[in-house]
Amino acid sequence: MDDPLFGFCRDCLTSQRSAARRCHACGTPRLLRHAELYQLAIAHIDCDAFYAAVEKRDNPELRDKPVIIGGGKRGVVSTACYIARIHGVRSAMPMFKALEACPQAVVVKPDMEKYVKVGREIRLMMLELTPLVEPISIDEAFLDLKGTEKLHRDSPARVLARFAKRIEDEVGITISVGLSYCKFLAKIASDFEKPRGFSVIGEREAVAFLRDKPVTMIWGVGKAFAATLEGNGIRAIGQLQDMDESTLMKAYGLMGQRLYRLSRGLDTRRVEPEGEMKSVSAETTFNTDLSEASDLVPILRSLSEKVSRRLKAGNIAGRTVVLKLKTQDFKSRTRNRQLADPTQLADRIFRTGLHLLEKELDGTKFRLIGIGVSDLSDAARADPADLVDTQATKRAATERAIDRLRTKFGNKAVETGYTFGTGRRESEQ
Ligand SMILES: [Mg+2]
């Protein structure tokens, strides 16, 4: 059981005990061996360069080219494929910089609706492995496979390897898997040998494994907090391992407790299935900064429609409407409002967003506007008929009629008064 030479081949799934570099059955080097391989059951699955992979799948001409998903002069890179990454392109990099690094890159505008659909398809396949799936974003999730051996008549490790193959065959993209005994290390493991990776971190090696790693690997340690730690001479996780809990808590409060625990590989957080996607939103960076209602309102309307389309496609609804603005000098303003019932209607999202926006229009110039909903739930209880505001009920009915037309004739078939003629103004990301 605890034999470090015992494992299986990720390609042909043949079990084997050997120290050889290649599989004795199919000859590939993709052997998975680990002393705790068959005791670990918490996995983190992350799709490899997800948006770019979906675009390459759908357009084989892009396959061997550097592809950047993003857009607009002032936009940023949303995803870079692995070829573009070799040229130094990274996500969140300003587009002009990315194109300086890789001028031959093919830039593709993101098609969120498509990615949401593929993400959902993969999510449903994950749910065939275990009901304990906790999505972190559109393309990554934690899975708890404890106790599923009977159901699958196989170990979590082998079930996950088979799953990776299935995603490649049936969805046409690749994933990386991290397998461990807790979420913290499963997530670190999935990032280890991307793309098409499968890494294992066992309980017995955790402390030694973490010892020389940077503190930024710890969940919640961002740039600012890492700088604080560095100011106190702490860079490696091993230094935290040598400190006691009360010292760390005195210095950093609750975060100190987290540092103490995670640095030792102690993480008892459970995989929470109800966590679903936390919000659905859409945003736009402008080519020139805007301050006028007449400019901002039509954009807000078209973004609301986009959010609504995603909600409807995913059969979900949100109860809190969130408006996001970024000023000329890069300051963020986030405003939100909770509704009586969850909604998936563009009209309701837009009107609530408009109410929030009006209070912000004080001459400030904005470079970005975004709208979204959080508090997501199933669409079943969304948008009950409004008994007080009969106009709202009427507008909801109109919107559903427009949706049916759009499903039939395409999104551009029906434009509302707010968005008519504004289609080309924005650069979207
Ligand atoms: Mg990913």
Q: Please, could you describe this protein's structure?
A:
This protein has about 425 residues and is α+β, with helices and mostly antiparallel strands. The chain folds into 3 domains: about 35-205, Reverse transcriptase/Diguanylate cyclase domain (Alpha-Beta Plaits, 2-Layer Sandwich); about 210-265, 5' to 3' exonuclease, C-terminal subdomain (DNA polymerase, domain 1, Orthogonal Bundle); about 280-429, Dna Ligase, domain 1, CATH 3.30.1490.100. The chain contains 14 helices and 16 strands. The protein has helices at about 50-60, 80-85, 95-100, 110-125, 150, 155-170, 185-190, 205-210, 225-230, 235-240, 245-265, 295-315, 345-360, 390-410, and strands spanning about 5-10, 15, 30-35, 40-45, 65-70, 75-80, 105-110, 135, 140-145, 175-180, 200, 280-290, 315-325, 330-345, 365-380, 425-429. The strands form 4 sheets. The protein has a 5-stranded mixed beta sheet with strand order 8-9-4-10-11. Strand 10 (about 175-180), helix 7 (about 185-190) and strand 11 form a beta-alpha-beta unit. It binds magnesium ion. Magnesium ion (MG) binds near residues 46 and 47. Magnesium ion (MG) binds near residues 46, 47, 50 and 140. Belongs to the DNA polymerase type-Y family. GO terms for molecular function: damaged DNA binding; DNA-directed DNA polymerase activity; magnesium ion binding. Its EC number is 2.7.7.7. One of its GO terms (cellular component) is cytosol. It holds the Pfam family IMS_HHH_1.
